[in-house]
Amino acid sequence: MVWGSDDSERLPLQEGSVAIPGPESSGVRYERRGTGMVRRERSETGRVRFTPVANFTARITRDLLLESDAGPEREFVLEAQLGGQDYTFQISATEFSRMSWVLRYLGPQAIVYPGQLQHARAAIQALSTQVRHERISSQMGWTKQEGNWMYVHSTGAVGAAESPGDVQVRLPEVLENYGLTPPPASEDLAVTIRSSLSLLSVVPDRVGFPLLAAVFRAPLGRVDFSVFLAGRTGTFKSTLAGACQQHFGAAMDAHHLPANFASTANALEVLAFSAKDALLVVDDFVSSGMGRDRALHGVAERLFRGIGNHQGRGRMNGNHQMGGFLPPRALVLATGEEVPDGRSLRARMLIVEIELGEVNVAALSKLQEAGRHGQLAAAMSAYLRWMASRYDRLQEHLPERVRNLQLHYQMHRSDVHARLPKTLAELHSSWEIWLRFARDVGVMGEPEQKELEERCRSALAELAILQAPYQHVTDPALFFVARLRAALMSGRAHVADRRGRTPDSPEAWGWRREHARRHWLAQGKRIGWVVRNALFLDSTAAYQLVHQDTKGPGLSVSEQALRRRLHARGLIASIDSGRKMLLIRRTLEGRPREVLHVRASDFLS
To answer: Please, where in the chain does CATH 3.40.50 lie?
Structure first.
C-alpha cells in the first residue's frame, strides 16, 4: 500500500483513471489507475492510503433483467482489460457476486490481491457509471407488458398492435425452433388460414378435428390432457404431427420434431415446462421387445401423469430444500405404434387412431409445402394477434364454455373414464374460438362456421366411442363390446341386414357411401346381421377381429369364456334354453347359422 499527504487528493490521476466514491460511511473511493484498480482510504490524520485491488480493470456495460413467471433473474455484460487485451463476457448476477468468474474469463494472469475479493467486486460496480438497463423475456408464451398481452416466441413477440415494440427475447436453446412467421398482410390472410384448415382434407374428420383443435387449444394455456396419435408404420403419423407442430415454427417438420420418447424423463419434463402455451410433439412411442421397454413406459408414465395432474417432479437443491418443480405448460401431442399401458394413464390421453390408407397423400404434400413456407406459422401468428386484444375475456369465457360442453359429452356409461367429457369439451371450445377468429377476420361466413362446428361435434362424438377399448382392459366383456363398437364406427367391420344387404342406419353399422355413387358399400369384415334391435353376431368372426387388433390389447380369455362373461354381464339378449347353449339358431342370408344374440342398442353411439 502507498501512503501520501493530504495534498495527494489534489494530484491528477494517471491517464485513463477515474475516481469514484465508495459508500460515504466507509471513506473508501475506488479508482482505475494504470492497468489495475485500487481503493483509496483517508486515515484519521488526513493521510491517504492507496491499496491495489486487482491488476485488471472491468466495468458492467449492460444490466439484463430476464423476466419469467418464475421471477426475474439478472445477468451482466462486462468489459475487462488485462495486459493490453480486451475481454467481453456475460455472467449471472449470482456468479458476479461470487467473483469466481475472474480466472474463468480472464485467465491465470488476472490477479485479485489477497483480502481484496469483495473490494474488487465493489470497485467494478463503482466504476460502472454508464450501464445500459434492458428487460428481456426469457420464457415462451403469453406475457403482459405495460398492460398489453403479447405472445413471446424465439424470434420476437406477437401482440394486438402490428408491431409490439422492441421486445427482446432470449429463450432456452431447446426452444430455438419455436419461431413464428410474422402475421400476414390482410390480402394474404385467407391463404394462410385456409392452409391450416386444409388438414381436414388430408385425414378423416375423427383424426383431423382433434389434431387441429389441439393446435388452437395450446396457446390458451394450462391443460390436463394429452393427445396421442396411434397407428402402424406407414400411416404418416410423424408427418401429420409435424404439420401440427409447424404452426409454432416452420423448421419443426417431421424430421425435426422437438422431442421423442428416446429422451429421458427429465428432458421431456423440462421441455413440457419450457414450451409454455404451445404444442409439443413427442414422437415415436414403440416397444422394442427388449429390456429397455420398462424404461420407455416409465418415461411415458411420468410425462402423461405429470400433465394429467399438472405436477412437476420435486428436487432437492444444494441447501437440502425442496425446489425445482417444473409443472408442464405445453399441450403434448404424442405419436406411437402402440399406446402406453394403464387405464389411469390412458384416461389422461385422448387417443386418436389412424389406419393405413386413410391419408390423402396428395393433400398431405400440399400441407407440408405450406408448413415449409411458414404459412401454418403465419396462420398461428394471425390467431395470436387476434387473441391478444381479447386474451382476458377468452380466459374468462373458456372455463364456463367447457363446463357447458362437458354436459353435452357426458356419456353416462361405464365404458369411458370421467376425464373424457372434459377433454372433448376443451377441444370443442377451442375450435369454436378459432372459428370465431376466422369469421371475425373475414375468411369464412356464418354457414361455413356452423358446418365446421357441427362436423367437429360429430368427429369428437365418434372419437369418444373409440376411447372405450383403451379404458377397459380388465373386463373382457366390456372391452369386447367397446372394441366392436369402435370397429363398426371406423369401418374395420360391418353388419348387414337379414338378407346380407344394406341395413337401416347403414353408417352406424360400418357402411360408407362413396362420393361418386349413391349406393352404400360395406367396410371391413362382416361380423353379424341386424334386425331391428336384435343384433346376431358371428361369434367367431367377432372374437377374432377383436383378438387380432394389434393397436389395442388383446382379449385375455377364450371365445367360450368370453360368451360366459357377456352372459354374466347381462349383455346377451337370449339363449337356447333347450340346448343350454349361449348360441342360438337363426336363418340369415338364406341359411341356418349359430349366432350370438345381443341388443343392437348396446353397439350404437
So the answer is: 186-442
What span, in angstroms and rounded, lies between the C-alpha atoms of 463 and 459?
6
CA gap 545, 137 in Å, rounded: 54
Q: Cell digits for 61?
A: 456495460
pLDDT in tens, 120-177: 999 999 999 999 998 888 789 998 888 889 999 998 899 987 666 567 888 888 899 9
Q: Tell me the CA end-to-end span of the chain in Å, nearest whole number.
A: 91
User: How many angstroms separate the CA atoms of 554 and 565, rounded?
Assistant: 16
Query: How big is the CA angle at 307 (ends 372 and 378), to the nearest 5 degrees?
Result: 20
Residue 272: the pLDDT is: 93
The model's pLDDT over 380-433, given as tens digits with 9 standing for 90+, comes to 999 999 999 999 999 999 999 999 998 888 754 555 677 899 999 999 999 999
User: What pLDDT, on a 0 to 100 scale, did the predictor assign at position 512?
Assistant: 87
CB atoms within 10 A of CB 395: 14
- In CATH, which of 3.40.50, 1.20.1540, 3.10.50, 3.30.70 is domain 186-442? 3.40.50
Whole-number Å distance between alpha carbons of 87 and 107: 11
The x, y and z cell numbers of residue 207, run together, are: 383424426
Q: Across 440-583, where does the E strand assignment appear?
A: 493-496, 511-513, 520-522, 525-531, 534-537, 572-574
Q: Which residues contact 444 (CB under 8 A, 6 or more apart)?
A: 435, 438, 452
Coil/strand/helix, residue 83: coil
Q: What is the pLDDT of residues 247-258, one digit of tens each?
A: 999 999 999 999
